[in-house]
Amino acid sequence: MKAACIQMNIFLCSKQENLERALSLAEEAVSKDAELLAFPEVFSTGFCYDRIAEVAESVSGPTLEALCDFSKEHRCILAGSMIEQRKRQVIGAEKPSSSQFNLGFCIESGKLAGIRRKVQLYGPEKKYFASGDSIAPIRLQKHGLSIGLIVCNELRYPEVARKLALEGADLLVSAAEIPDFYIYPWRIMSLSRAIENQLPHIACNRVGKDRYSTYPGSSFIADGWGRILAEAGKEECVLIGEIDLEEAKEISQTGSICEDRRPELY
């Protein structure tokens, strides 16, 4: 299966411009026979804190609608993260809470296959986002796959990837917005999550610059042994890598890492 990282620049708060650019790069990916496309974290807006209530959308909003249309036309899988407008009725009256989620999504052949709201928030996110409360793979029809979707900072918590693996994920996909000063740890952690769970990892980071940081890309696709199948540099690009699903299954079944865990001691 060919997978793609849509390593794109993100213009802060420019939703339409970002969406159009993402779909243009996605066209390039599917023209190269990519079946699974991963976008960076909050790819359509960046961390648009100044106008966050304005740019936030529901899962039935125009951004996911456009992605569903693209996915239906090309019969592909799209995964990434966006700013979700939180339903007012789920906000408890006793404790004020943020009105947005950082929403991880996965779309397959025109339909929303599943969502997973980011559970491990970082820095300013804690002020603007509510935390998700579940960690589970997203089941797909194509190839009978289950995707373990990881949203940026969650990568720093091995428990997130391990729980996804224990619940049947066949591969990991991470949507990231990692700045230049943290790119080396991000790379090591991304490879570690692949190796320790013996699963392929599609790790997609953004490029460009905003008021907060500079982003160096360096997206990659690795197999369950941590071998790099494809790797990007610092420029906007479509990174294509081919994952051998039969080999991935063999790697995941080598040894008994998960079975030999002793969680009662951890």
Quick overview:
With 266 residues, the chain is an alpha/beta fold. It is 26% helix and 26% strand. A six-stranded mixed sheet has the order 5-4-3-2-1-14.
Provide the succession of SSEs: EHEHHEEEHEEHEHEEEEEEH
> In angstroms, what is the radius of gyration?
17 Å
Tell me the count of domains. 1
Tell me the major beta sheet: 6 strands, mixed
Return the average pLDDT rounded to an integer. Answer: 95
Helix percent reads: 25-40%
| CATH class division | Alpha Beta
Within CATH, the superfamily carries the name Carbon-nitrogen hydrolase
- Assign the structural class, choosing from mainly alpha, mainly beta, alpha/beta, alpha+beta, or little secondary structure: alpha/beta
Q: Which overall shape is indicated by the principal axes computed on the Cα atoms?
A: globular
- Kindly report the CATH topology: Nitrilase/N-carbamoyl-D-aminoacid amidohydrolase
Major beta sheet, strand line-up: 5-4-3-2-1-14
Beta content: 25-35%
CATH-scheme architecture: 4-Layer Sandwich
Q: Termini distance?
A: 36 Å
The helix tally amounts to 7
What ranges have pLDDT less than 50 throughout 5 or more consecutive residues?
none
Number of strands: 14
Overview of the molecule:
The chain is α/β, with parallel strands linked by helices and 266 residues long. It has a single domain (2-252), classed as Nitrilase/N-carbamoyl-D-aminoacid amidohydrolase (4-Layer Sandwich), CATH 3.60.110.10. Helices cover 26% and strands 26% of the residues. It has helices spanning 15-31, 52-55, 62-74, 125-128, 158-166, 183-197, 245-252, and strands at 2-7, 36-38, 77-85, 100-108, 111-117, 138-139, 146-151, 171-175, 201-204, 207-209, 214-216, 220-222, 228-231, 237-242. The strands form three sheets. Strands 5-4-3-2-1-14 form a six-stranded mixed beta sheet. The radius of gyration is 17 Å and the shape is globular. The mean pLDDT is 95.
